[in-house]
Amino acid sequence: MSDSIAATVIDCLEFARSGGVLERSVGLDELPRLADLLSTTDGCLSVRLEGWRDDEGKSWLQLDIAGEPVLCCQRCLGGVKFPLVIRSRLQLMAPGEDWPDGDLEDDSADAIAAEAALSVLALVEDEVLLALPIAPRHEQCESPSASVTGHGSSPFAALADLKKH
Length: 165
Description:
- It is a single chain.
- With 165 residues, this protein is α+β, with helices and mostly antiparallel strands.
- It has helices at residues 12-17, 32-35, 120-131, 155-164; strands at residues 9-10, 21-27, 38-40, 44-53, 59-67, 70-72, 79-81, 84-93, 110-113, 118-119.
- It has one domain (5-164).
- The longest helix has 12 residues, at 120-131.
- The chain is elongated.
């Protein structure tokens, strides 16, 4: 198995049955769907995936992700560090198995379809995207228009000044 998580594909049920554990570092530049939300793709996330079967014969994955991606502040457009700590418990549902309805109402776990070829990188990216705020921003910052100086109150005032000359 290579050191890159991008090439890592697992059979979910087999991974859980054998008690598999996978620990890797994932570069933010390896997550293309996340890149549009980031101020920079420098940095990485630490990822740990563990599988097991419980006493009732149910298969589980636990995904732990930690890191500090730098998101784009929606107010000033600067970078804002977002401490990320994700711990997801995922019940694997085999084809034809009844999906739980009442068992997962406490939100301590989610159910996902067990795949014979699950891309670990796609699973990591999905969980990170779900954990991010809709509109990230600093606690205190100014909008870009508040920092315009010397040309009136708007960019159009600056254009008017240019037109006079």
